[in-house]
Each structure stands twice: as C-alpha cells, then as structure tokens.
Amino acid sequence: GSDIGSQKDRVVTEAEWLQKWEMGNIGFHKEQGHPLLRKYLDVLLNGRSGLRIFFPLCGKAVEMKWLADMGHYIVGVEVSEKALKEFFAEHGVPYHEEPVPEISGAKKLQSTSGNISLYCCNIYDLSSSIVDQFDGAWDRGALVAVNPCDRQRYVNLMITLMKKNSSYLLATVSYDPNKHKGPPFYVPESEIKSLFGNHCEIKCLEKVDDFSDRHRQWGLDYFLEVLYILKFL
Ligand code: SAH
Asked: Which keywords does this Swiss-Prot/TrEMBL entry list (predicted)?
C-alpha cells in the first residue's frame, strides 16, 4: 500500500483548473522550459527524428515548441482554451481552429504548418482512434495533476496511446503528502510500478531537489522531482 494519506480522496474539478488559468494562478508553468527534458532529451528521442510526441495535460508548456522546432510532431491535450491560445501567442505561432467531430464541444488548435496539434477537451474524451499512437511522451505536471481516484483510468488511456517500443518520460514529485493537499500530488515509486509495470520497463533516471519558496509556503520542508523513463513493451 502507498502512503499518500489524505490525498487519495481529493478532487480538483475542471472548473477549478479553468479558474486557475483565468486568474493567472499558474505557478506550475515553467517559462524557461524544463531542465530535465533538456538533459534527458536523448533518452526520449533515442536518435530518432520526426517523432509523434504526446503532451498530456499540456498547459502552455514551452517544451512543445522546442520539440516542434527540432522537427517532431506534437500533440497536446488541455482543458483550458486560454492556455492553448497563450501558447500560440507567446511563441508567435500562427494557428487555426477546427471542431473535433468525434468529441462534442472539443476543438483542435493546429499550427498553420501542421506540426503542433492541441486538443482543447478533457483527456478522457481522447482515444487512439482520434489521435493515433505516439512514439514518445513528456508527462510533467500531468500524472501528478490527475485526481488520485482517476490515476488508473489515466494510465490505462496512456497505455492505449503509446506504440510498442515508445519512450515515455515521466516527471513526478516527492514530498510529505500530509503537509500539502496537492496538486501536484505525490505519486510514490511503488504506485508507478503498479500502474505501468505490466506494460513497461521502468527506470528511475534522477531525483533532484527542487525545493523553493513556493514549497515552503505550502508548509513543506523538502520537495523532490523524480524522473522515470518508461519503455513500452
Ligand atoms: N504539463 C503542463 C501543465 C501542468 S498543470 C506544465 O508542465 O506546465 C495541469 C494542467 O492540466 C492544467 O493546465 C489543467 O488545466 C490541465 N488539466 C487538468 N485536468 C485535465 C483533464 N482532465 N483534461 C485535460 N486537461 C486537464
């Protein structure tokens, strides 16, 4: 059993996420991109070019622009349209919008050059018949943002979206879950293994101290980022 304590029943609604974006309450966004993706890019790409790379719960992650500029094809999903519009605006990338026939109310925002496709909808509305399968994924602020009660559902979906032999870089966080309610939620290594273990080889690449004033204000006294590489079998 895992020691996630009181977090297991916590639910953050879609409306609460939309409100965070409306209020500009987005302390999770990294303007300079994520140093761990830079460092482990080769582990994700494995020398391959022109990959289809998935960004679940993408926000306006600047890493999508990095990888697109390297010639990869990016697909993201995010419930906040504001986040997606800010992404295109902040990078000066022209785009167009179209409905997604399979998902009522969903929109796809796609760069004019076609290499970045961002779905504005709930991730649970996606399926491989809509977005096809991926060669790689960058999961940061995604599994750890999913409500704990939905983790298995989220992982089951991810498993259907990843090709055989694909690489999935997963960044999680570690802190005392009795001192902060999340998100981000604490996902112990034992749980990563039970969620993904039957479908992947899992390797922990690095644990880095990421403690900052923000975490101190949450009442924490340590905060680690833990990076895994998952290889789909
Ligand atoms: N991965 C991004 C954003 C992390 S915050 C980054 O690293 O910066 C989590 C994001 O997921 C928020 O932008 C939130 O609006 C979005 N989100 C939460 N639940 C979602 C869901 N069920 N479907 C799609 N997006 C969701």
From this structure: Cytoplasm, Methyltransferase, S-adenosyl-L-methionine, Transferase
